[in-house]
Amino acid sequence: MNIPTMISIRGYLKLTVRGEHVEAFINALAETGTPIWDVRPTGEHSAEFKLLLNDFKGLRPLLKRTGCRTRIQERHGLPFRALRLLKRKMFVGGIVAFFAILLALSSMVWNVSVEGNEKVASEDVLEAAKQEGLYPYQWIFRLKSLDKLSTNLATRLPETAWVGVERNGTSIRIQIVEASVPKRPELLSPRHLVSTSDAVITHIYAEKGVPRVQINNRVKKGQVLISGILGDEENAQNVVAKGEVKGLVWHEYQIEVPLVKTRKTYTGDSSKKSYLVLGNRAVQLWGYGEVPFEKHETLTLYDPLTWRSRVLPFGWMTEKVLEVNETKTTITEEEAKKEGLDSAFRDILAKYGPDSRLVSQKILHDKKENGKVYMKVLFEVEETISKELPIVYNQGE
Fold first, then answer.
1. Within this chain, do residues 296 and 361 fall inside the same structural domain, yes or no?
2. Is residue 63 one of the residues assigned to a domain?
3. Whether residues 306 and 343 fall in one domain
4. Is the N or the C terminus of the chain less surrounded, counting Cβ atoms within 10 Å?
5. CB–CB of 29/37 below 8 Å?
6. Domain count of the fold of the chain
7. Model-level pTM?
8. Of 230, 204, 225, 199, which is closest to residue 215 (Cα–Cα)?
9. Residue 153 pLDDT > 60, yes or no?
10. Residue 183: what pLDDT?
11. Based on the domain organization, do 356 and 324 belong to the same domain?
């Protein structure tokens, strides 16, 4: 006979029937329309078959009529599984509690992040969100609509032009577009412009204030170049002196340049060592053995594990060993001198500004010794020599 549908859900039994009239019993089942399947004789007066659980009670009158007896061999299907689970109350309770906790956890806000803010502090945004009922461990169903949250947060944060709130599962993301606020002019106290070093004035322009020196004047370090005091002693007004002053300044350099240059190049060959990092310890997992390169450099990459925004105290570290070739080249004494002079002037540009101009240079002393060229050089440079100095009021004024 055909197997009924959904037998695993409805439940079924595997039975053994014994008696002198087994065939009559099987035929009686067929006459009543009771579905059975996998009928198999197991002896001269016995057989096995499978039957739906709901049809088991209807066997009694047929068994009496044919004088047969039946015995349950196996039980299958959802009803029997549910019965076994019900007998294990602790297990069932644990499953129910697990799904209840899982449902509760998935109904809470676990993380609130802020993006797009530069001037507005994230703490201020999170505080405003908390006042609107949006904070970690809050029930999701208690939150206001996302549109209303966006509107209320924009009202609470006047420094923003737009606030957007987006929910992704148990995480809330607040996006900020900051308002364009014109910069307020910095309030400065009255001050002079004074010289940063001894120099000879080559250019002076006073945008505000009174010039105290002229072109070709020799000035000392700290001398007032443009005064921030206008008027005389009786009618004085203090202002913030502004302007530009340039002068000739002399810099003395001791230069040392080797005649033999060592340059490193990477061959492209490399090897790796991998470590598992636990706290401040690293356990090597792969890459044992000696380094196969005579000369090498090691590049260390550390990739810590993170959970949300927190960096956990363990991770993965990789050491990449790169093979290096060293080549030595010899330069002439003249090339060494030029390289040293260029390096010194680059240092002047870095220290005194890119608008500095080299006027002259004079090698005061040079010698060649121990594979190096030594020079003592005096540079004459035109550079900006002014800096601000606040005006200090005398007590009693």
1. no
2. yes
3. no
4. C
5. no
6. 4
7. 0.46
8. 204
9. yes
10. 67
11. no
Alpha-carbon distance of 215 to 248, in angstroms, equals: 11
324 in the same domain as 369: no
Residue 157 has pLDDT above 50, yes or no: yes
Give the C-alpha separation, 364 to 349, whole Å. Answer: 21
Pairing relation of β-strands 260-278 and 281-286?
antiparallel
Q: Which residue in the block uniquely carries the two structure tokens 């991770």?
A: 315
The encoded tokens of residue 149 equal 């949250």
Cα distance from N-terminal residue to C-terminal residue, the chain: 119
Q: How many residues does the chain have?
A: 397
8 or 362, higher pLDDT? 362
Identify whether residues 31 and 65 lie together within a single domain.
yes
H or E segment and range at residue 312: strand 310-330
Q: How far apart are CA 188 and CA 266, in angstroms?
A: 53
Predicted confidence (pLDDT) per residue in 12-70, tens digit: 999 999 988 888 888 888 888 888 888 888 888 899 999 998 888 888 888 888 889 99
93-107, 254-268, 272-286: which range is least confident on average?
93-107
| Residue 184's pLDDT band (cuts 50, 70, 90) | low
Per-residue model confidence as pLDDT tens digits over 79-108: 888 887 777 777 767 778 888 888 888 888
Average pLDDT of the segment spanning 325-347: 92
- By CB atoms closer than 10 A (0-12, 13-18, 19+), residue 56 is middle
d(C-alpha 397, C-alpha 390), whole Å: 16
Tokens of 9: 């859900």
Nearby residues of 338 by Cβ (< 8 Å), 6 or more positions away:
none
Residue 230: inside a domain: no
Q: How far apart (Å, rounded) are the C-alpha atoms in residues 377 and 365?
A: 7
Decide which of 178, 198, 232 is a domain's last residue: 178
Task: Classify burial at 186, counting beta carbons within 10 Å of its beta carbon; exposed 0-12, middle 13-18, buried 19 or more.
Answer: exposed
Q: Rounded CA gap, 97 and 91, in Å?
A: 10
Flag whether pLDDT at 263 surpasses 70.
yes
CATH number, domain of 26, equals: 3.30.70.340
Tell whether 390 is covered by a domain: no
Amino acid at 217: N
- Is the same domain home to 151 and 136? yes
Six-digit token pair at 251?
Answer: 């810099």
Q: Which CATH number fits the domain that encloses residue 140?
A: 3.10.20.310
Domain residue limits at 62: 7-81
User: Would 236 be classed as within a structural domain?
Assistant: no
Are residues 15 and 76 located together in one domain of the fold?
Answer: yes
